[in-house]
Specification:
Growth Hormone, Chain: A, mainly alpha
């Protein structure tokens, strides 16, 4: 099956190749964040860092990841996806190598931040490519398929990181991340063909960018979906940022056992993306996320009860979080496409804005956890409960009211 294209032009890449590349490009984010999670406590001990400093290796990366997309997005709308991908992935690989060599916490935070900025090119471009290649009816289903691949990658990352950290040390996990970046850069160089036609490339004039920015920020559909995807990702990030300390230092898990626990919830997420595809065959994305919101809310209630009663065995937490991740597998594909759906001629900018907003929220979560983590699971439970309630509220109101709306771009594309 070939990838559908607009304008009657023959497809440059097959549908299967597009989906595989999308999964790899989106998967660079969990590779970058998840593989080194099991080694964070050992990293903290070796570098003599505080909890807040160690959190900065993750939150700094994600804040740079979000902010950089505001640059990568307009550049990709002007010059195309391929050159931005190649530059970003090359920078990602170099920064990763410098992370491995870092001797102080400050150096590690610096190069992880640079790596996050480079990672923004890959994830931003992936979301924009879906809008380049697929019509709205297909886009959410393709995104669900690609995010299923992301889930598989995310499931393999923590056990690999736990194995590497426990046998070769935490630096070996960062080396694995660097190697993945280099291989992805090579894959894009050899197999990826430009998806943005020249006639749909926008100018980089300030007036055009400002008009497009205002158009996106005033669009109710954009805000409905971006708030949903942000809430869902913030709940996931709460788990990513806090779980290694809770599982290893509170519940006594080894690094490999912790990696397997993270792998379990990743596989639940993959199952959620499969359910999402089935739902989208029978209903539109706004209805699908309303169904998924019940899973998010049920998880939130379970987390809140455990936090209130201070009864929180690891197996009960994993069961409740599995419900959250099952819903996450429904919300992410629908919302990732929803934020770019109305913006055919500025998909890069819309993708960048959504990525920036998501990462600002993640940065805030990381700062909050650095302050609230106290040697108990309370912050982990409370954070996921909060975001679960937020997901349900947004899905049942803003997405229901505005999720189907669409409008043409504010500024026509220009070759200038």
């Amino acid at each position: 099956m070939s990838a559908p294209t607009r304008g009657g032009q023959p497809p440059a890449m097959s549908h299967r190749l597009v989906v595989v590349l999308l999964g790899l490009l989106l998967g660079i984010q969990p590779i970058t964040t998840d593989v080194y999670l099991p080694g964070m406590p050992a990293m903290r001990a070796e570098l003599g860092a505080s909890m807040a400093q160690v959190q900065l290796t993750l939150t700094g990366l994600l804040l740079a990841f979000g902010a950089s997309q505001l640059v990568w997005g307009p550049l990709s709308d002007r010059f195309g996806r391929r050159p931005i991908l190649l530059v970003g992935l090359a920078l990602y690989t170099v920064a990763g190598a410098l992370c491995v060599l870092a001797q102080t916490t400050a150096d590690l935070v610096l190069w992880r931040t640079v790596q996050g900025a480079a990672m923004g090119a890959a994830v931003m471009a992936a979301r924009a490519i879906v809008r380049d290649v697929y019509d709205p009816a297909q886009g959410a289903r393709v995104m669900a398929l690609a995010l299923g691949g992301l889930g598989l990658i995310a499931g393999m990352g923590p056990p690999l990181g736990g194995l590497l950290a426990s046998t070769l040390g935490w630096r070996s996990a960062l080396m694995a991340v660097t190697v993945c970046g280099a291989l992805l850069c090579l894959t894009v160089a050899l197999r990826f063909t430009e998806t943005l036609p020249i006639e749909r490339r926008s100018a980089l004039r300030v007036g055009v960018l400002w008009a497009n920015l205002r158009h996106a920020l005033r669009h109710p559909t954009f805000w409905a979906w971006v708030l949903l995807v942000t809430s869902s990702y913030a709940g996931l990030f709460t788990f990513l940022a806090a779980s290694s300390f809770v599982f290893i230092q509170v519940w006594g898990f080894g690094q490999l056992a912790y990696g397997l626990a993270v792998s379990f919830v990743s596989m639940v997420y993959v199952a959620g993306t499969f359910l999402c595809r089935r739902l989208l065959a029978r209903m539109d994305p706004t209805q699908a996320v309303r169904h998924g919101a019940w899973l998010s809310l049920t998880s939130a209630v379970c987390m809140a009860v455990m936090a209130a009663t201070q009864w929180h065995p690891w197996w009960a937490f994993l069961a409740a979080h599995a419900l959250f991740m099952f819903g996450h597998g429904i919300h992410q594909p629908c919302a990732q496409y929803g934020v770019v759906g109305p913006f055919a001629h500025m998909a890069g900018l819309a993708s960048a804005l959504s990525g920036f907003i998501m990462m600002v929220a993640a940065f805030g979560v990381g700062l909050w956890l650095g302050w609230r983590l106290d040697g108990t699971p309370q912050a982990l439970l409370q954070g996921i409960a909060f975001w679960g309630v937020g997901i349900a509220s947004i899905a049942w109101t803003l997405v229901r009211w505005h999720g189907k709306a669409a409008a043409p771009p504010a500024v026509a594309p220009s070759r200038a």
